[in-house]
Amino acid sequence: MTIKVFAPASIGNVSVGFDLLGMAVQPVNGELLGDVVAIEGCDGSNQLAMEGPFVDKLPNDPKDNIVFTCIEIFQQALSEKGQEFDWVKLTLEKRMPVGSGLGSSACSIVAALVALNQYYQKPFSEAQLLAMMGQMEAQISGSLHYDNVAPCFLGGLQLMVNDKQIISREIPSFSQCYFVMAYSGINVSTKAAREVLPEQYDKATAIAFGQNLATFIDACYRQDLPQAMSHLKDVLAEPYRSGLLPGFDVCRQGVAELGALASGISGSGPTMFVVTDDKENAEQIQTFLQENYLQSPAGFVYICQTDVHGARLVC
Ligand SMILES: Nc1ncnc2c1ncn2[C@@H]1O[C@H](COP(=O)(O)OP(=O)(O)O)[C@@H](O)[C@H]1O
Ligand SMILES: N[C@@H](CCOP(=O)(O)O)C(=O)O
């Protein structure tokens, strides 16, 4: 029997929590914005097939795909537990553009590891799986950050905690909000977008960062939308990354004039996210971004809300 797992797109950082905060999103029109991985048993050796709209952006050799590495590390972990295993064939439906700021590699990693765990009768706990997901993401981006894999796996708004047993805790999000996600259609490598950041920050920046994150989290717990939105500011990455995103500053100004509550870079970009609590306003912002932010035919704009489910089995 074939098992199929879907893993959703996510907003890394959510502006205030560089590497520490992430949120899973789902389009309100019901489309699947994320990757799907199917798994079944096979003979001889492990296999990876690839399909889907963004398959041409993946490495040609399946062995260079992060999903193949997921199979290898998962089976190695099974061996270390003394558990025998059979060979598997995975099929990756690559629905997410690569280098998009939507947690594309995280979608593949999470869908693959959840599918493997399901196929092999759940040998690993949620925390063990999340640790493996972080390890895989670090291999791709060059540094360990869970802000895509954790929300993609667990759903909702997730805050990373410095505790190996837990790794991530869910924070109450704003279920009334719409997140307009505009992928411009250009590729920004996460690794490269990390290299433009300074090694050190000054005291005023450190204080502003701490205040924004703390105030935002406090507002989430009190469901105080105005306070949350007035502090949704990125003082660590956005000042250095916005120059990599053609049209970002102009569109940011444009959506503010249309009444957006806040906006920022999703992950390392080029996707920008815009927050509003009004459906009609979300539609106006969607049209504006379609007309002004897209740089290539590969671009798209979705109106999303928080995805509270995370990775899940699909038919
Ligand atoms: N299944 C996969 N999904 C996405 N990227 C993959 C996958 N397998 C290998 N890669 C490689 O990993 C890198 C991902 O780039 P990155 O900028 O981190 O993307 P994203 O930010 O969208 O996750 C690319 O070089 C890509 O070729
Ligand atoms: N915290 C990371 C998030 C990267 O997200 P991605 O979707 O661009 O992979 C960072 O900002 O570097």
Short recap of the structure:
The protein has 10 helices and 13 strands.
Provide key terms for this protein.
315 residues; alpha+beta; Ribosomal Protein S5, domain 2; Alpha-Beta Plaits; eight-stranded antiparallel sheet; five-stranded mixed sheet; binds adenosine-5'-diphosphate; binds the ligand N[C@@H](CCOP(=O)(O)O)C(=O)O
Number of strands: 13
> Level of helix content?
25-40%
Gross morphology = globular
> Whole-number radius of gyration?
19 Å
β-sheet strand percentage: 15-25%
Tell me the count of domains.
Answer: 2
Kindly report the CATH topology of the largest domain: Ribosomal Protein S5, domain 2
Q: Note the main sheet.
A: 8 strands, antiparallel
Mean pLDDT: 96
Gross CATH architecture of the largest domain: 2-Layer Sandwich
Query: Spans of 5+ residues with little confidence (pLDDT < 50)?
Result: none
The CATH class of the largest domain is Alpha Beta
- Following the backbone from N to C, one meets helices and strands in this order, namely EEEEEHEHHHEEEHHHHHEEHEE
Task: Provide the structure class.
Answer: alpha+beta
CA-CA gap between termini: 12 Å
Written overview of the protein:
The chain is α+β, with helices and mostly antiparallel strands. It folds into two domains: 3-172 and 309-313, Ribosomal Protein S5, domain 2 (2-Layer Sandwich), CATH 3.30.230; 178-305, Alpha-Beta Plaits. The protein is built from ten helices and 13 strands. It has helices at 66-80, 104-119, 126-141, 149-154, 190-195, 203-222, 225-230, 238-241, 248-257, 279-292, and strands spanning 3-8, 10-12, 21-27, 34-41, 47-51, 88-93, 157-160, 168-171, 178-183, 262-265, 272-276, 300-306, 312-313. The strands form two sheets. Strands 2, 3, 7, 8, 9, 10, 11 and 12 form an eight-stranded antiparallel sheet that branches. Strands 5-6-4-1-13 form a five-stranded mixed sheet. The longest helix is centred in the C-terminal third of the chain and has 20 residues, at 203-222. The chain is globular and about 60 Å long. The model has no long low-confidence stretch (mean pLDDT 96). The structure holds adenosine-5'-diphosphate (ADP) and the ligand N[C@@H](CCOP(=O)(O)O)C(=O)O. Adenosine-5'-diphosphate (ADP) is lined by residues 58-59, 65-67, 92, 98-100, 103-105, 108, 140-141, 189-190, 267. The site of the ligand N[C@@H](CCOP(=O)(O)O)C(=O)O has 16 residues, from α5.
